[in-house]
Amino acid sequence: MSSSKYLSGKIVERGIYFFSSRLDSLSSGYYDAAIISACKEGKFFYQPRDLQVESVCIRRETMEEPIRASCVLPRFNSVVGFYPKGGGANDEALPKPPNSGGGVMGQLRQIDGLLYAAGSVGCIYQRISANNWRLLSNGLNTKGIEEYRSEGYSALEAIDLIEGQAVTTCINGGHGKIFIAGHDGKVFFLKGDTWIEVNSNTNAILNDIQIDQSGTVYVSGRGGILLRGDELGFSVIPTNLSEHLKTMAFFEGRLYIGSEKGLYVLDGDVVKPVPTIEKGPFNCVELDSYDGELLVVSDRWFMVFDGKDWKKTVDPDNLNVVD
Question: Could you give the CA distance from residue 233 to residue 215 in angstroms, rounded to a whole number?
Fold first, then answer.
């Protein structure tokens, strides 16, 4: 294999990790190829896949589906791929997007036992059972140019109006609550089958959502934005940071925050840098926590923290491009 950059990564179980990557050899704007990989106790396994995989997720065992599966979400609305423990890979088709302009997908999550996929312009999907996904777009502005033109607006007016579309990129939930967030500081709460917009007190692009054990919701975004709140509204936690806060995870009761310059932790109301074995700043692609480990995924390597010690692993295909 040739060198690549990680796009997403999750903990399968202690010592086993699952990733998606983009090959360095691909030209800009080309998304019809991907690499998914697994690392088990330091040994890597690779598999090519068509369509760039934006997000990976581990579907944990449930009573209805007792076999765990590693899952992948391609960039464009099409399918969700399943790689069950023991073999038998398969794809499940997603419903069509609400309009022709939707379908750029962002995040795949398991929430309260069910899988959810989040993408732009109303492409929010819930998996009810095997091969059974439903669209959850009620309450979101999904109108495209064609819809506005059919209502009598000119082409130029329609182009201006689609700026109001809900461009969502991330989803998370727990305790019976589900939230989505994305561009222009938009945050929505799912009430029944309808999304209700929540005052976020920001217009920043939002990147990730986490919920603590008490049901408090945290949302991170560009320009050092960190929000805290719930379905009644959010307030801004001052961070004194200007970089993009890209990903978050709770580990041992503390909120860890990954940015384009490194790793932080929320200590009360103060965001503090986390010392690791990595010297200097690094781009944090994704954080995950499970089975007593915190996973920190960077572009070409990942680190694991067990609460005491850090361990860094470089993808062998990236050894020649890592400093």
Answer: 13
Which domain CATH number covers 256? Answer: 2.120.10.80
Give CA–CA dist 251/182, Å, rounded. Answer: 24
Residue 118 CB partners (closer than 8 Å, separation 6+): 105, 106, 107, 108, 109, 124, 125, 168, 169, 170, 171, 180
- Three-class secondary structure of residue 183 per DSSP: helix
Provide the residue-wise pLDDT of the chain in tens; the chain has 323 residues: 689 999 999 999 999 999 999 999 999 999 999 999 999 999 999 999 999 999 999 999 999 999 999 999 999 988 999 999 999 999 999 999 887 666 799 999 999 999 999 999 899 999 999 999 999 999 998 777 777 788 888 878 777 777 777 889 999 999 899 999 999 999 999 999 999 999 999 999 999 999 999 999 999 999 999 999 999 999 999 999 999 999 999 999 999 999 999 999 999 999 999 999 998 999 999 999 999 999 999 999 999 999 999 999 999 989 888 86
Containing structural domain, residue 200? 57-303
CA distances from 7 to 16, 75, 211, 284 (A): 17, 11, 23, 10
Quick check: is 126 in a domain?
A: yes
Residue 319 domain flag: no
Residue 155 to residues 7, 171, 234: CA-CA distances in angstroms? 36, 32, 36
CA distance 236 to 187: 13
In a domain, 282, yes or no: yes
Residues with Cβ within 8 Å of 253's Cβ and at least 6 positions away in sequence, in order, are: none
Per DSSP, the three-state class of 317 is helix
Number of domains forming the structure of the chain: 1
Using CA atoms of 296, 297, 298, 302 in order, give the dihedral in degrees to the nearest 10: 80
**Close Cβ partners of 111 (under 8 Å, ≥ 6 residues apart):** 171, 172, 173, 174, 178
Rg (CA), the chain: 19
Position 320 in a domain? no
